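Record passed on underneath.
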Amino acid sequence: MKPSRPSSGLLKPLVFALCLVPLASLTLEALGGGLGANPIETITHTTGDWTLRLLLVTLTVTPLRELSGWSWPVRLRRMLGLFAFFYGCLHLMTYVWFDKFFMWGEMAHDIVKRPFITVGMAAFVLLVPLAATSTNAMMRRLGRRWKPLHRMVYTIGILGVVHYLWLVKADIRQPLIYGALLALLLGYRLWRRWVRRRAAGAPGTAQGRSARLPHRPAPSRTM
């Protein structure tokens, strides 16, 4: 018996609301004075964590669809990706506004001299065109170039994990967990590509037979 497909009319609003829960929780903690001794650090880490988590959830959509046969997760991928960008913007603005107070010289020095900030900035810069081209209109406009562009999410995920790993000073368990999950998701994609290429080149398949047929020049038509 196949599992029932969630209603699209209820699913998207529900996921949208769930994606706002971390922001609502952070806001309530800020209003109640529950951000601890270093509120800026708490906000920075929370928004950064949720950026990376939502990126990983976005990358989970394709394996989940292929392994389960469900199509409904695909309808959520764009929303999840945009929420990852949203929390990435909050993460960056916390640094620019609350930490550095728009002191561009100090920020430029940090980007050059502090590797974890360099990597984090690179990840955000790469994330911007993905968010900007996430609409159906941009998909149609870019055509075949859209997919290669959005494969940059793999690089962004790696940069995000490295950014987190270089940020922490002692306890690296959480970034390592994120790194392991990312490695699993990317490893699945590499395995799937290998399987498809192997199947395409197998002698018993139509693709394999066509690839192995000797090239025969067309007969010349001389008068």
